[in-house]
TrEMBL record:
Transmembrane segments: none
Coiled coil: none
Taxon lineage: Eukaryota, Metazoa, Chordata, Craniata, Vertebrata
Designated name of the protein: SYMC protein
Reactions catalysed: tRNA(Met) + L-methionine + ATP = L-methionyl-tRNA(Met) + AMP + diphosphate
Gene Ontology cellular-component terms listed: aminoacyl-tRNA synthetase multienzyme complex; cytosol
A single BP term in Gene Ontology: methionyl-tRNA aminoacylation
Gene that encodes the chain: Mars
């Protein structure tokens, strides 16, 4: 509102981040499809923001054709430029359900503190991050069957290849910008420890499809997909969206 009062050209967008395992597990608990769940809660969120008179130009969502198009386009550009690599991950698979178990679809005993209801990504008692295959006595949350460790192929963003370029950009940005001390510290820590390849795919059905042979039964990991919602929501608002997001001179 301040920017608008100053007559600055202003765009204010937000939306609901709708893909990922949190949606799938909640939909399962409520007896709904993931789409039905997202439709319900998108309306709830939109009503709350309207009640607070928060003046978004567009309050959108990530489950749109524009989101799919933009995410897949960025993926293809990364692929063409050699910034992706393939590797094998060991994952828990439930043979009864016929699916690999994403982190929130598996529970077991925490390998660190012994808490018996730890999730496949984190223990809520001791707070430690967990790789699902490290869980003791793992169980599928859907059928309570015992999953087995199975190898599966995934795609990774080759962050080490970008490390030198990123470091040079950060030095320029730190010199010219107004970074907080905390932001500088966290970023320096990442670089000090060395960037690692980061997985961008998951064995799920609820998400943006991966447009590559051999991976078409997978979707993009929500961390790769969700930030692009700002772009796709802008694209749903105006066909001039690239003037907002691809305009480094302004």
């Amino acid at each position: 509102r301040y920017c608008r009062l100053r007559s600055w050209n202003t765009l204010f967008v937000c939306g609901t981040d709708e893909y990922g395992t949190a949606t799938e597990t909640r939909a399962l608990a409520e007896g709904l499809s993931p789409q039905e769940l997202c439709d319900r809660y998108h309306a709830v969120h939109a009503d709350i923001y309207a009640w607070f008179r928060i003046s978004f130009d567009c309050f959108g969502r990530t489950t749109t054709p524009q989101q799919t198009r933009i995410a897949q386009d960025i993926f293809q550009r990364l692929l063409e430029r050699g910034f992706l690599l393939q590797d094998t991950l060991e994952q828990l698979r439930c043979e009864s359900c016929g699916r690999y178990l994403a982190d929130r679809f598996v529970e077991g005993t925490c390998p660190f503190c012994g808490y018996p209801e730890a999730r496949g990504d984190q223990c809520d008692k001791c707070g430690k991050l967990i790789n699902a295959v490290e869980l003791k006595n793992p169980q599928c949350k859907v059928c309570r069957g015992i999953p087995v460790v199975t190898p599966t192929q995934h795609l990774f963003l080759d962050l080490p290849k970008l490390e030198g370029r990123l470091e040079a950009w950060l030095e320029r940005s730190w010199a010219a910008g107004d970074w907080t001390a905390n932001a500088r510290h966290i970023t320096r820590t990442w670089l000090r420890d060395g960037l690692k390849p980061r997985c961008i795919t998951r064995d799920l059905t609820w998400g943006t499809p991966v447009p590559l042979d051999g991976f078409r039964d997978k979707v993009f990991y929500v961390w790769f997909d969700a930030p692009l919602g700002y772009l796709s929501i802008t694209a749903n608002y105006t066909d001039q969206w690239e003037r907002w997001w691809k305009n480094p001179q302004q």
